[in-house]
């Protein structure tokens, strides 16, 4: 076999994508699988957005655009940042890429050099460690748990900082936990970043899916100093159910954007022209479709949590945003991969093991599916846990 780049050779595949592929395979064979593995809304892209994409094709808007996006789309994004986050970005400070993931990858590659430390908390989104590996950086992971609602404190962050710390990745609302940082928590973190000149990549892709009455706060909005040290990442994938359209964006300091542009010039060139026109229609529209989707996700969250509360061997912290419940399964005494594999094979319910998120005592359940599926799927899990627990007791009593 040919010699493979050592950084690429060490990369781990995405557990979420692998299980999603397995679910599709089983469904194609007629297996009745309940899918709690989904990392995308189950709603269709709104019709007015699809029509904008079709119109772009009909009008021949199918050629190259500037590599970091059209001016019209950047202006719409700038208006959104100002309206939603109180962030003033010029169009020249905005990069449009092939999804929020692409933006984060670009930022890590531009900001992180060999040996630089990138700080983030566990549980983390599965792609963060692999992005850092490709850049040659070192992941400095701060462990959190259900007792602290999976959030790092200012004190924890302060202890983690070293002379090699360069970047902090924040994800709020979080995938996989659904937690959201408060303004005070962000202020504590921002103060440390400014003191030590640590750049923040703020992953805010689930910003529109929040189920609390507290106003959502972007860390970059907390003052000029932290604004100048932050890239705010967002996109249309979750809020407008446009995951396959692959449009994400970020606002960042001018110098950082210029380097991202150079990098993107030589990788993807521009995001799809047709998708950019669809995203422009989405961002210029009212939030009616978002509100409806958020209300439905809130109801589903309530339902899933109420069913899971009845399973004694499982515990969780109620999510404040996104569409996941992160469940502690440590009482079952097996690792998350084994639990996920057995639940899928024995009762046909797909969940994501916490191992890929740096939390092997947990599994992630998505409520991006119907109420009927949520009820049926959680009941199957409850039945499986009861049967499993009974067998374990029998084994123990026979020893």
Brief overview, please?
44% of the residues lie in helices and 14% in strands. The chain is of the alpha/beta class. Strands 2-8-7-6-5-3-4 form a seven-stranded mixed β-sheet, sandwiched between helices. Strands 9-10-13-12 form a four-stranded antiparallel β-sheet.
Describe this structure in words.
There is one protein chain. This protein is an alpha/beta fold and 399 residues long. It folds into 2 domains: 6-44 and 288-398, Aspartate Aminotransferase, domain 1, CATH 3.90.1150; 47-284, Type I PLP-dependent aspartate aminotransferase-like (Major domain) (Aspartate Aminotransferase, domain 2). It is 44% helix and 14% strand. The chain contains 14 helices and 13 strands.
How much beta, percentage-wise?
A: 5-15%
Q: Helices and strands: which structural class?
A: alpha/beta
Shape, per Cα inertia axes: globular
Low-confidence stretches: 394-399
Distance between the termini: 49 Å
- CATH architecture field of the largest domain: 3-Layer(aba) Sandwich
Structural domain tally: 2
Q: Could you tell me the number of beta strands?
A: 13
Q: What kind of sheet is the major sheet? A: 7 strands, mixed
Q: Describe the strand arrangement of the main beta sheet, using strand numbers.
A: 2-8-7-6-5-3-4
Cα radius of gyration in angstroms: 21 Å
Following the backbone from N to C, one meets helices and strands in this order, namely HHEHHEHEHEHEHEHEEHHHEEHEEEH
The mean pLDDT is 94
Number of helices: 14
The CATH superfamily of the largest domain is known as Type I PLP-dependent aspartate aminotransferase-like (Major domain)
Percent helix: 40-55%
Question: At the first level of CATH, what is the class of the largest domain?
Answer: Alpha Beta
């Amino acid at each position: 076999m040919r010699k493979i780049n050592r950084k690429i050779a060490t990369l781990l595949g995405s557990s979420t994508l692998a299980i999603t592929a397995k679910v599709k395979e089983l469904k194609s064979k007629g297996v009745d699988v309940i899918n709690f593995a989904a990392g995308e809304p189950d709603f269709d892209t709104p019709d007015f957005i699809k029509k904008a994409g079709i119109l772009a094709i009909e009008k021949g808007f199918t050629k190259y655009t500037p590599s970091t996006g059209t001016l019209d789309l950047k202006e719409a994004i700038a208006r959104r940042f100002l309206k939603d986050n109180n962030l003033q970005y010029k169009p020249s400070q905005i990069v449009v890429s092939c999804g929020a993931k692409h933006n984060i990858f670009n930022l890590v590659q531009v900001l992180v050099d060999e040996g630089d430390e990138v700080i983030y908390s566990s549980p983390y989104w599965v792609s963060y460690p692999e992005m850092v590996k490709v850049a040659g950086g070192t992941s400095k992971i701060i462990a959190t748990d259900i007792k602290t609602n999976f959030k790092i404190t200012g004190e924890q962050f302060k202890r983690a900082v070293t002379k090699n710390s360069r970047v902090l990745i924040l994800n709020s609302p979080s995938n996989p936990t659904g937690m959201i940082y408060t303004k005070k928590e962000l202020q504590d973190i921002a103060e440390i970043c400014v003191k030590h000149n640590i750049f923040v990549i703020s992953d805010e892709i689930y910003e529109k899916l929040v189920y609390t009455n507290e106003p959502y706060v972007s860390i970059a909005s907390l003052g000029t100093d932290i604004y100048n040290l932050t890239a705010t990442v967002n996109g249309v994938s979750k809020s407008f159910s446009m995951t396959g359209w692959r449009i994400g964006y970020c606002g960042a300091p001018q110098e950082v954007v210029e380097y991202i542009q150079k990098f993107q010039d030589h990788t993807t060139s521009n995001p799809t022209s047709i998708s950019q026109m669809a995203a422009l229609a989405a961002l210029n529209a009212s939030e009616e479709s978002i509100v409806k989707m958020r209300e439905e996700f809130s109801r589903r969250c309530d339902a899933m949590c109420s069913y899971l509360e009845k399973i004694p061997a499982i515990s969780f912290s109620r999510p404040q945003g996104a569409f996941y419940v992160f469940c502690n399964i440590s009482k079952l005494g097996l690792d998350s991969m084994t639990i996920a594999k057995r639940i899928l094979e024995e009762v046909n319910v797909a969940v994501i093991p916490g191992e890929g998120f740096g939390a092997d005592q947990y599994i992630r359940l998505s409520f991006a599916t119907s109420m009927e599926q949520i009820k049926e799927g959680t009941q199957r899990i409850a039945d499986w846990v009861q049967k499993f627990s009974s067998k374990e007791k029998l084994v123990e009593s026979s020893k």
